[in-house]
Amino acid sequence: MIKLASSFAAIAALLPLVSAQQSVWGQCGGNGWTGPTTCVAGTVCQYSNPWYSQCLPSSSATGPVTSSPPPSSTVSSSSSVGGGGGGGGGATPTISGGLPGATGTQKLNTVAKSAGKTYFGTATDNSELSDSAYIAILNDGTMFGQITPANSMKWDATEPSRGSFTFTQGDQIANLAKSNGQLLRGHNCVWYNQLPSWVSSGGFNAATLSSIVTTHCSTVVGHYKGQTYAWDVINEPFNDDGTWRTDVFYNTLNTSYVPLALNAARTADPATKLYINDYNVEYAGAKSTALQNLVKSLKSAGTPLDGVGLQYHMISGSMPGGLASNIQAFTSLGVEVAITELDIRMTLPPTAAKYAQQKTDYQTVISACKSVTGCIGITIWDWTDKYSWVPSTFSGQGAACPWDATYLKKPAFDGIVAGLG
Ligand code: G3I
After folding, report:
1. The whole model's pTM is what?
2. Ligand 1, atom 38: nearest CA belongs to which residue?
3. Cα torsion at 124, 126, 130, 133 (round to 10°)?
4. Residues with Cβ within 8 Å of residue 255, at least 6 apart in sequence
5. Is 336 assigned a catalytic role?
6. What is the pLDDT of residues 38-65, one digit of tens each?
């Protein structure tokens, strides 16, 4: 024991121990890790994978907690995993399937902010949050500064029967964002899909459906008042040829449901940014033009609208040209743009050549956003292939995310970093 009255030198000897405690979100273990293995007060060192343990707030930690170096693994010890550490690249690691992985160890939100963007984020879903290795990476606010619930704020989840609202699942995501210090994107108010049949087949007249839309958007956006950065108020209103999608909203209300929902959202939360979000509007064409015309008409009518979400569900090797000028076409109308649902799929199985192409494609998209000031942030539609929506929707397609299904970073990760550089 050291007596309190002992010399300055003895006290000074304690300082390295104090400063050796890792701060929240920092690395605290992993193969080859020589830094601190204990965390500051209020945080715990949580094992994520053999190469990475991280200091998490005690409130958000799940699963095994350790300050000891993690066990060895069957995967190559040169692999680059999960959150990674600081610094640049290294030798090319091998990941699942014996394929080359990423070399970068940067944190994407940190890199995005350095590039002048507001955030780099990811979609997530409630069913994924019981996966402790997944959540350890998701919770890293330096990697993901923003999250979007993939399903739990949609109409079928929040108002499954008329006037009966449920927010348990949505709140889980909102609370996660809050505890991680991440921005939250609300997704979505009005969409033809994942719409309960009481709405789509209710046979309501225009006055009643107007009231239903207003109530839904007011209640859902109002419930999350002060908690969201932005809301996808209107989702996917157009067909690919630029005509209006003939869903129950358009068929009953014509285009009036758009300002109706936007005004309801603005009243419910004056601070959140109101977006229209769609796919196949990432490049010039009839659908992008239709969306630009809608933005113009809403702006000239004084309807509240802050942004346009370009989803970016893309196909590797088929990247259209003119991405930056298309983004610019929207920002020049006085709205911000966000890349809201980025993934780049390929025909399975992946190969080294396909991963290399995907890396190039990710870089192309990200650098387009980087080059336009009004493109404020990027969200990937989940970060790991384990939970991607693609394989269940496009038979034989997948591997669309920057991390593989075992949470190892693919070359696409390096493409993102390069695009932000
Ligand atoms: O919750 C049920 C579960 O109870 C049931 O056992 C299971 C059986 O299939 O289905 C579950 O629902 C699924 C839901 O995701 C939650 O996992 C639906 O079948 C499935 O269709 C649904 O897919 C979602 C899809 O939107 C629906 O269109 C994806 O997770 C979600 O990532 C995807 O996201 C959309 C954006 O909202 C809008 N832009 C396109 C994007 C990709 O499709």
Report:
1. 0.82
2. 235
3. 0
4. 244, 294
5. no
6. 777 777 766 554 555 555 656 544 434 4
Please name every residue paired with 375 in a beta bridge, in sequence order, or none if there are none. Answer: 337
For residue 275, what are its two tokens?
């977006």
Share of the chain above pLDDT 70, in %: 82
Among 98, 216, 213, CA closest to 159? 216
- pLDDT at residue 37, rounded to an integer: 80
Strand partners, 53: 29, 47
> What is residue 384's predicted lDDT score, i.e. its pLDDT?
98
Residue 293 preceded by cis peptide, ω within 30: no
Q: How far apart are CA 39 and CA 53, in angstroms?
A: 11
Residue 341 known to be catalytic: yes
* Rounded distance from Cα 318 to ligand 1 centre (Å): 25
Tokens for 231, please give them. 């809301």
Provide the mean pLDDT of the chain.
Answer: 88
Q: Tokens 């399903």 label which residue?
A: 151
Query: Mapping DSSP to helix (H, G, I), strand (E, B) and coil, where does residue 384 land?
Result: strand
Rounded to a whole number of angstroms, the distance between the first and last alpha carbons of the chain is 51
> What is the percent of the chain with per-residue pLDDT over 90, rounded to a whole number?
78
- The tokens describing 162, both together, are 């008329």
CA atoms lying within 13 Å on the CB side of residue 37 = 14
Q: How far is the CA of 151 from the centre of ligand 1 (A)?
A: 6
Q: Is the CB of 193 under 6 A from ligand 1?
A: yes
* pLDDT tens profile 102-138: 999 999 999 999 999 999 999 999 999 999 999 999 9
CA distance 415 to 360: 6
Structure tokens at 207: 């006055």
Region 169-198 average pLDDT:
98
Q: Residue 194: CB within 6 Å of ligand 1?
A: yes
Q: List the one residue out of 280, 289, 291, 213 whose CA is nearest residue 248.
A: 213
Angstrom CA distances, 67 to 23, 54, 139, 325, stand at 13, 9, 18, 49
List the one residue out of 354, 336, 334, 352 whose CA is nearest residue 344.
354
Q: For 25, what's the count of Cα atoms within 13 Å in the CB-facing half-sphere?
A: 16
